[in-house]
Amino acid sequence: MKYISSRNKNYALESHQAIIRGLAEDGGLFTPASYPDALRPEDILGKDYRGIAETVLKAMLADYTEEEIRHCVNSAYDTKFDTDEIVPLTALKDGWLMELWHGPTSAFKDLALTILPHLLTTAYAKEDRHDVVSILTATSGDTGKAALSGFADVPNTAITVFYPEIGVSAVQKRQMNTSKGNNVEVIAVKGNFDDCQRMVKEACSSKEVLDACTGVTISSANSINAGRLIPQIVYYFHAYAKLVSEKKIAWGDPVNFAVPTGNFGDILAGWLAKKIGLPVGKLLCASNTNNVLTDFLNTGTYSLDRTFHTTMSPSMDILISSNLERLLFLLTGQDDEKIREWMRQLKEEGSYTVDDAVFRQLQDEFAGIWTSEEECAEVIHDTWSNEHVLIDPHTAVALSAMRKYRKESGDETPCVVLSTASPYKFCHDVLECISGRNIPDDFEAMEVLHELTSVPVPANLRDLKTQPVRFTRSIEIRDGMHVIAERMRSLSHVQD
Ligand SMILES: *Cc1c(COP(=O)(O)O)cnc(C)c1O
Q: Is the dihedral of CA 185, 191, 192, 197 positive or negative?
C-alpha cells in the first residue's frame, strides 16, 4: 500500500518514507493510494486502545513490521495519558463526548503526536539514515505544544514551532514558551495561523532554506504529515467499539460523528475510518465564525474572500484547510490534474468550485454547520448547569453542530462528539461562559474555575505558572525563510 502525492499520483512512497518526507516536493499531500481490506468486528471488539491502534496501524502502514508497530504503539499510549482508557467516552443526554484530551498536553493532538516521533525514528532506522530531521511546525495553539512534547530530546531530530503572536490563549502560549528539551525552538510570528502554515510549506521548497540544509532533512509534524493523520483513525474505531460493548448499538448500526474542524485532519481520519469498514453515518463538520468549510460543503465553492475572525476556539481559526485537498483527491478518483488546477485557482484567484460529482459525494457524507460565539458560550453554560460537564469552546462548537444538525435534518442517528481540548486550556473564556466572571489573567481564572467546579486541573496545566519561560522570540512574516535557513545552518553545524 503506497502513499501518493495529491498533485502527482505517480509520485509514490512507502508509508515510512512519506512520514519522513512530510509534504511532497510538488506541494501535494501524501495520501493512501488504496484502502486495505475492511476491518471486521472481530478485529476490533474486545481490544483496548493499544490493541485497536495496532490493528488499524498495521492495516494502514503496511511496510512497518508487526513488532515495529507494537513498539510505536506501546511507547506512545502509556502513562503519559492520565487514564488507562486513553480516550474515555462521557455520556450526555443526547450523545457522547469522546474525550481526546487526556494526554501530556491536554489536547487531541497528543493522540497523534505521542506516536509520530516513534513512527519517524523507526522509519529512519528502516532507511539506515543518520541525518538530522528538522521538524517545522505551524500551530494555531495545540499542535505546537503537543509536537514539542513529543519530539523533546528525541535523537536525530530538532523541532521549530511557529505560532501566531495574537490568537493563541495565554495558557497555550505559556505551554509552548516553557517547553523543555535541547532540540526545541519556539517562535512567535506577527501574523495568523495561515501565515505560519504558508511559511512552513514554503520552506519545504525554498532555495534559500534547502541550500542551508547540509545533513538536514525538513519534515513536518502538522497534519499534512501522513504520520499524523493515520493514528487519528484509531479513536473512531475505539469509540464505536465501546458503544457496541456497552450495548448502546450493535455492530453495523451507523453512528454520526461531530468534529470541531480546522485543518480538516481530524474529520478526514473519520472518513478514512469509514473507508476501512467503520459504520459511520454522517460526519458533521463543525466550524466557528470562520465558516469557510460550512459554505464550501453547502455550495461546492471554496472562497477565501472573507474576514478572518479570532474566536474563543482558536484552533479552528483557519481559512485554508489543508487536508481538504486529500479528500478531494480521493473523491475525484485521484485526479491529480484537477487538484493542481483547483489549488492553483485557490492561490491565484482566491476560490475554486468543485464539479457536480464531487459535490454530490460531499453532500452525501458530510454536513457543514457553524456556530456563533454567542451560541458557543450558551452551550458551555448550559452543559455545565444542566449536566455538570465542563467543556472547552472547540467541543462546544461541535456539540452545538450536533444539535443544530438534528433539528434541521431530523436525523436521529446516535452521535459521538469529539471533545478536543481540556476546558482548562481556555480558562478565561470558559469561566466567563459558566459564571459571567471576567478574570483576564488565565492562571487566576484557572484557580477560580477549579474552585467553582471542582473539576480536576490536568497536572501539566496546573504546574505551568511556575515553569521558567525559555522562548520570547518574535519575527515578521517576511523574515520567515531567512530565520528558517539560519536554523538549518545551525543544525548542519551540529553534524560537522
Ligand atoms: C487542532 C484542533 C482542532 C481542529 O482539528 P483539525 O484536525 O485541524 O481539523 C479542533 N479542536 C482543537 C482543540 C484542536 O487543537
A: negative
Confidence check: pLDDT of 495 > 60: no
pLDDT value for 222: 85
Exposure string for 336-375, b = 16+ CB within 10 A, e = fewer = bebbbebbeebeeeeebebeeebbebbeebbbbbbbebeb
Listed by start position, the domains of the chain span 89-106+229-464
Task: Round to whole Å and give the CA distance between 216 and 214.
Answer: 5
Instruction: Name the pLDDT band for 155 (thresholds 50, 70, 90).
Output: confident
Taking the model in full, what pTM does it have? 0.94
Give the CATH architecture of domain 89-106+229-464. Answer: 3-Layer(aba) Sandwich (3.40)
- CA–centroid distance, residue 84 to ligand 1 (Å): 23
Q: CA nearest 274: which of 246, 220, 237? A: 237
**pLDDT for the residue 494:** 56
60 near 36, Cβ under 8 Å? Answer: yes
Average pLDDT of every residue of the chain: 95
Give pLDDT, residue 141. Answer: 82
Ligand 1 centre distance from Cα of residue 313 (Å): 9
Q: Is the CB of 260 under 6 A from ligand 1?
A: yes
Average pLDDT of the residues in 47-64: 98
- Cross-strand partners of 133: 157, 217
Please give the grid coordinates belonging to residue 179.
517547553
One-character DSSP codes across 471-490: ---EE-GGGHHHHHHHHHHH
